Amino acid sequence: MVNSKPSKRSIKKQTSATKGNLCRHLVTASQKIPNKLAVSVQQKTRNGLIYQEIDFKTLHQQSDDIAFALSEFGLKPGTKAVLMVTPSIAFFNLTFALFKAGIVPILVDPGMGIKNLKQCFEESQPEAFIGIPKAQLARLLFAWGKQTIKHVINVGGPALAGGKQLTSLLKKYPRTSRFKMQEPLLDKLAAILFTSGSTGTPKGVVYTHRMFEAQIKVLKHDYQIKPGEMDLATFPLFSLFGPALGMASIVPDMDASQPIKANPDFIFAAIEKYQCTNLFANPALLEVLGQAGQSKQHSLPSLKRVISAGAPASLEAINRFSEMLTGKAEIVNSYGATESLPISKIGSTQMLKTTQITEQGGGICVGYTIDNVEIKIIKIDEAVIPEWYSELTLPIFEIGEIVVKGPQVSAAYYRRESATELAKIKDGDAIRHRMGDLGYIDDQGKLWMCGRKAHRVDANHLQANKTYYSIPCERIFNTHNSIKRSALVTVQRNGKSTPAICIEMNKENRLDNTRLFFELQELADKHSHTQGINLFYIHKKFPMDIRHNAKIFREKLAVWAQQQS
Description:
alpha/beta, globular
């Protein structure tokens, strides 16, 4: 059991119930709007795009059928089950079935790599593996969960290596009466969601039903999502909130782990077919859709809002995509992490007004705190902070580590005690999470992001020690017309930590290196937070996180830069 009680500040707004199941929202929708569309999945065929649809009543019934069959097969409440199924009707049915039966789904990002996936399964110790044939073959080939998996269920393909087909289980264990949904304690383990591992080793985040309920409340109240809306869902986890909100989830034909490869025409077609009012898009997809919309003079008048999360979107991408929106519709940039999402937000209209501050190295504005959440800035420290005390808080405009408290904040990582100790601070009955991001709060209460704590450079190459922060420094050099993107890294020179800037050039660059480096040095000298930077290295193509295409693997660049110095 996870002891993650809500803070005293948030108790007033939470239900007094101690038990529950997030699937209760699906049950309600199946009763109030049974024949309304719940999920539609787009699929490319030789004859064009087709859509598989399911309404709320059928989604509720089919997930009940699966929950009953899985329970009879031997998956009991508390059983941990890896779920590796592509976005589909089956994905929705299975996920809701697992929650209904009290089975704990383990959700991983296939894009994190084979090595990381194996480690995730070793740590989470799943007893069941539910997956499509491709996932089952990988499980056998790489021995995923070999020591712990007892139940193997194949989805959409033949049974492999002793596994059972989902369709055969449904025939063997037909449900003949109403399935009694499990109602566990709200603070009991509900799911394990692994971080992407884009800035370190993936960690399993312990999710409770209370956390899911808090996120649903945020989407209802802070984002004003209402029943009857249509959501173009490009991220599997977010798509699950649709039915819980009485909102249809429209799933486009795309690889969610590589949104940069998505076909814009497919997404535009789905939005227009269903007149979608909401779109969830990470920075990479915003860029792809914005460029396509600009070249085709496309508009998306049905959209009321676009929610972007996962990494800070560039102001250029936001501006470009905004040209497709009409009326009061705007892009809502959400800040958070798997461990605590969302914690702040800002609309694109306000965000674009912060352009000048950002370009001058003031960080990226990630907005105002979500209702019922508390954000503090503390002094940068690598040590464990076991207990919270008010003196930890830094004054406004002072850069430090971002710390958050609220009902959607996770209390622990699964079977990673040392990581939990480093990331969590006990505050009475509540838990504060150290985001691992650096930033500051301004005099209007807005939060500004200045990069990852691990990406700062504590330099001692100068007469006085100085700390450089990734986002403020990189934004200065990114204003140069020849620069596509830059990355701050540490190199060792004469035994001293020294800041260096790796550069990826624009294709249209016409400057020779001598001239370019001279101009970059001039830029560095003009700003106090970049003064002292005089090492520049041109890299052909930065290693990037494929999901967001905004997260640079600076650790890899640092190793490369050290070899150049």
